[in-house]
Design goal:
The structure is a homodimer of 192-residue chains.
Chain A: E1 7-12, E2 17-19, E3 23-28, H1 39-46, E4 51-57, E5 67-74, E6 78-79, E7 82-83, E8 98-104, E9 106-113, E10 121-127, E11 130-134, E12 138-144, E13 150-157, H2 165-170, E14 174-179, E15 182-187
Antiparallel strand pairs in A: 1-2, 3-4, 4-5, 5-13, 6-7, 8-11, 8-13, 9-10, 9-12, 14-15
EC number (chains A, B): 5.3.1.9
Enzyme class (chains A, B): isomerase
Domain Glucose-6-phosphate isomerase prokaryote (chains A, B): 27-184
Chain lengths: 192, 192
C-alpha cells in the first residue's frame, strides 16, 4: 500500500493567509451577487467587485478515512445591511459533519437541517477560540460580523463532497443583517 | 431520524482549558511512568506525581459521519532529559486520519506508520497556528518542548477508536530529548 505522508500547514497571522497556500479559491461579490437582498447596493459595489472571502485548501484525497481541511477568511464588510458571508453548502453525503475553529475575528455560523423533514435552523457565534460542531445533516454558512477578517479552519471527512446549487437557488431561511448597529437574525423574505 | 444539534466549545486562553469542560481526562506521571527512559528521575518525580497532560473531550457519537474533537494541554516539563509527552496511540480503524491545530505553545508531533510493512517515522513541529495532518495509518504522539503549556485541538472520524496497548508495550522508534539545550531526536534504545 502507498502511505500518504504527514503534512504541516500554517496560519500566517501577519499576512492573514495559509502557508503554503495550497489550492486558493476566491469569491468576489460577482460570484454571489444574487444572494444578497439589496440589489441596489450590489450594483453599486459591483463597480469595484470586492473579494468577499477566500479559502486555502490542503490537497488531500477525497476518500473515506482522510480528513479534508482548509483555512477560510471572510473579509469584513456589508452589502446593504447584510454582512459578508460564504455561499453556504451542505455535503453530498449529507450524513457527514464539519468542524470549525475560529482563529481570529468575530462572526456567526448559520445552519439549516437537510433531512426529509421540515428544515430546522440553528446559529452559533464564532470568535477567537471557538470550536464549532456542525453535525451530520446540517447545511452551513459563515458570516463576518466584525471589523476585522474572520479566519477559521474547516475540517470534514474526505468523502463528504459539496452541494452548492440548492442553497444558491433557495437561500437560507434566515438572514443576518445589521440593525441599530447590532447583528440581528431575521426571516428571509425570499426563502423558497 | 433524530437530528444531532450543533454545539460550540471554547478554548479559555486565560485559564488554559476548554469551556464547557466536557469529559476531562488527566494523565499524571504515574499513569505512564514506564514510558520514560530515566527511571531514577521518574522515581524522584513520582513523590509529587505531576500532571503530564489532560484533554477535554466533547461528547460526540462514536459513529461514521461524526467528527470526534477534543482540546489537549501538555504541561511544560521534562522527566530526566525527555520532554513531557502524551502516551501516543493509533486508531482501532487504522485507516483513519487525525488533524491537530496548535492554539499555543511549542512542541513536536511524532508519527510512526502502522501498516504491515516496516514502520516508518515522521516528525512535524507544532507552534501557534500550525495545522498538522496525521494521515491514515500513522500512530501519533505529541510532545511539549517549550516553557509554556502546549494546547492543541485534535479532530478525528467518529468511528476511529483508539489503541494504546501496543505503543505502551513497544514504545516509539524515536525519542525526543533535550541535548545542549535543544530538542533532539534520537533512536529509542528500548524500542522492540
Amino acid at each position: 500500500m502507498e502511505l500518504f505522508r504527514p503534512i504541516n500547514s500554517y496560519y500566517d497571522f501577519e499576512n492573514i493567509k495559509m502557508v503554503p497556500e495550497g489550492d486558493l479559491i476566491t469569491r468576489n461579490l460577482s460570484d454571489m451577487d444574487w444572494m444578497y437582498q439589496d440589489q441596489e447596493a450590489v450594483q453599486e459595489l459591483l463597480k469595484e467587485d470586492p473579494q468577499i472571502y477566500r479559502y486555502y485548501n490542503v490537497d488531500i484525497p477525497e476518500e473515506e478515512g482522510h480528513l479534508q481541511h482548509c483555512i477560510s477568511i471572510i473579509n469584513p464588510g456589508k452589502v446593504g445591511n447584510e454582512y459578508n458571508m460564504t455561499k453556504g453548502h451542505f455535503h453530498e453525503i449529507k450524513g457527514t459533519a464539519e468542524i470549525y475553529y475560529t482563529i481570529q475575528g468575530e462572526g456567526m455560523l448559520f445552519m439549516q437541517s437537510v433531512t426529509d423533514g421540515e428544515p430546522e435552523f440553528e446559529a452559533l457565534e464564532m470568535k477567537k477560540g471557538t470550536l464549532s460542531y456542525v453535525p451530520p445533516y446540517w447545511a452551513h454558512r459563515t458570516i463576518n460580523t466584525g471589523e476585522e477578517p474572520l479566519a477559521f479552519i474547516g475540517i470534514y471527512p474526505g468523502e463528504a463532497g459539496h452541494v452548492y446549487g440548492e442553497i444558491e437557488a433557495k437561500g437560507f431561511m434566515k438572514l443576518l443583517i445589521e440593525k441599530d448597529g447590532e447583528p440581528t437574525i431575521i426571516d428571509n423574505p425570499n426563502y423558497k
